[in-house]
Design a protein that fits this description.
Layout (H helix, E strand, L loop, with lengths): L4 E6 L2 E6 L10 H16 L5 E6 L4 E3 L12 H19 L5 E5 L2 E3 L1 H8 L2 E5 L3 E3 L13 H9 L1 H10 L3 E2 H6 L5 E3 L4 H13 L3 H15 L11 H12 L3 H11 L10
Parallel strand pairs: 2-3, 3-5, 4-6, 5-7, 6-8, 7-10
Antiparallel strand pairs: 1-2, 8-9
The structure holds coenzyme A.
Coenzyme A binds next to strand 6.
Length: 264
């Protein structure tokens, strides 16, 4: 079904592995088409409860956009390439099911942007992050100027993007670009454990948390319907009161038992 991705579904966790290890999983047009399709599957398949995005091989998560596709582009073609990449990454960011990046090595350029479009990130201790586009006379085009700034702050974002500086896993942790650093061998295990905890919660509430937090950080008003984050939070808080999971959660607390959420 996919030419550049491996996928698997295990206990509700859908793992998407970018699979071009000989090219360090660089993002070409086919990868974007496949990622787009894979996210459609995530949106539509009720058996998928959460998603891990990772890279094939021991060396790279994704080493960037595929530079071989750049050389022949004119300005208009470059703009539509960036728009296509941004749209696929918005589909990841706005997904109501948790999407987590398990960064298993180089996460550069479009790879860092892909990881940042996910809801949060873990990485292995060999990971390296950076936006080295400036070395090619370019800037990030898949949301990197915006998301890196939200995640690590203006000063460090400016320094990384203007210098092309790469940072290692521990600096990424210190800058809050990733939530956890693990040994390479246990990265997927730790990511799975976190997603299992999230999957035991009320899915509608989890989806609303994603929506509200995204309004706090997404600068494109097309994705916020003109609402402030606080307005969105009031509306979403109210929506939760219309769900059976909210009644189940509060009743279970009062009855001193574990809730059994159904996503309704
Ligand atoms: N686009 C296309 N191909 C890429 C790529 C990219 N972004 N990153 C790596 N590759 C390819 C290399 O060309 C090489 O292919 P080849 O074996 O056919 O020559 C293969 O992947 C392995 O990469 P290589 O450079 O030999 O590995 P390395 O260990 O020496 O270096 C990196 C690793 C990540 C430092 C280096 O590949 C690199 O700098 N990549 C580009 C990073 C970048 O600028 N990303 C932003 C793009 S906008």
């Amino acid at each position: 079904m996919y030419t550049t991705l491996l996928t698997s579904l295990d206990n509700g966790i859908f793992t998407i592995t970018i699979n071009r290890p000989d090219k360090l999983n660089a993002l070409n047009k086919e990868v974007f088409n496949d990622l787009d399709k894979a996210m459609d599957e995530v949106y539509s398949n009720a058996d998928i409860k959460s998603v891990i995005v990772t890279g094939a091989g021991p060396k790279a998560f994704v080493a960037g956009a595929d530079i071989t596709e750049f050389s022949s582009l004119n300005k208009e073609e470059a703009m539509s390439l960036a728009k296509r990449g941004q749209d696929v990454f918005f589909k990841i960011e706005n997904c109501h099911k948790p999407v987590v990046a398990a960064v298993n090595g180089f996460s550069l350029g479009g790879g860092c942007e892909l990881a940042m479009a996910c809801h949060f990130r873990l990485c292995s201790d060999n990971a390296k992050f950076g936006q080295p586009e400036v070395n090619l006379g370019l800037i990030p085009g898949y949301g990197g100027t915006q998301r890196l700034t939200h995640l690590i702050g203006k000063g460090k974002s400016m320094e990384m993007q203007m210098s092309g500086l790469l940072i290692d896993a521990n600096e990424a942790l210190q800058l809050k670009l990733v939530n956890y650093v693990t040994p390479f061998e246990t990265l997927l295990e730790k990511t799975t454990a976190i997603l299992q905890t999230i999957q035991s919660k009320a899915p509608i509430a989890v989806g609303k948390i994603i929506e509200c937090i995204n309004v706090a950080i997404v600068s494109d008003s097309a994705y916020t319907n003109g609402k402030t984050g606080f307005e969105k939070e009031i509306e979403s808080f109210g929506d939760c009161f219309n769900t059976s999971d909210m009644k189940e959660g509060t009743t279970a607390f009062l009855e001193k038992r574990k809730p059994n959420f159904k996503g309704q």
